[in-house]
Amino acid sequence: MNSERRTRANSQVWFVGTVNSSITQEGRLPTLRDVLSVFFYRHIEEKLTLSESADIAVMELLKIWKKSGIPTSFDYNIKNRLLKVHKEWQMLKKSKNRRSETQLENEKNFCDQLDLLFDVAHQEARNLIAVPEDWEFLVAQREGQRGYMAGIDRDAERKKEMSNKKEQDIKKRKERSDREVAALLEKETCELSCESSTPEQSDEEYNHVGPRKKKVCQLE
Questions:
Q1: Using one digit for the tens of pLDDT, what is the confidence trace for 150-169?
Q2: How far apart are CA 31 and CA 141, in angstroms?
Q3: Which one of 24, 64, 99, 208 has the fewest beta carbons within 10 angstroms of its own beta carbon?
Q4: How far from each other are the two terminal CA atoms of the chain, in whole angstroms?
């Protein structure tokens, strides 16, 4: 009973709220709260180190970003950023009894970003993203979690179908080209065969007829 009570108590983190073992939301990219929820679950409930907890949280985060098809930053950069957020959280919690104007403002700023996109897109994402819908989805998520990933999933399916169709078209063109080349080779072979079977002219036809010899009159 005491163990259950401790688990329920540990499942609530200051400012973050309930912790979770994984990111469970569907159809959108994770917020900072989503990522911290997994981070604190691993650190508090499973007693993992801060580094280990960050590794798992980043892994959960990137699984969802991968589904969106949007290129991301390197893992270690994301991990360092998450640990920096945790350090900020620690400092705020340590000073939570100080109700100064600065403390209140810092708490507000921290809370305001909790439900915003934890943006880990690659800094060159705009140039790396080839499909306009993918970029539009990222912009919508940055503006306040607008958009739905299911649409991106359908786009991914459509892109796959288009890619398959393109491959089929290339295959058909190659087959047609191969047939044309084969027909041309067959025609040339036939022509060469016909030429070789034509009767050759006899040597007599090529004998050179020289000029007539002058008749010499003999004197009696």
A1: 554 545 555 555 666 677 77
A2: 10
A3: 208
A4: 161
